[in-house]
Structure prediction request, 65 residues.
Amino acid sequence: MLNKVSLYADKTKYDALGFSAFAAPILIGMIADTVQAYNLIDVKDRACDLTIYDNSSEAILYPSK
Prediction:
């Protein structure tokens, strides 16, 4: 239930976002926590690993954990 999320982005556009690039991890984290809470997963067991990959090279733009 949203424990591991992978997103794909264009590296040049992702890099151009600057500080705004942190919106994706924050929003995904909030959504994952809400879904896990709805499914009655205990707070200490809730986790969400997010990885953002470059579309063309598959390089990791935002590492999990």
About this structure: The two ends are 17 Å apart (CA to CA). DSSP finds two helices and three strands in the chain. Helices lie at 11-16, 23-38.
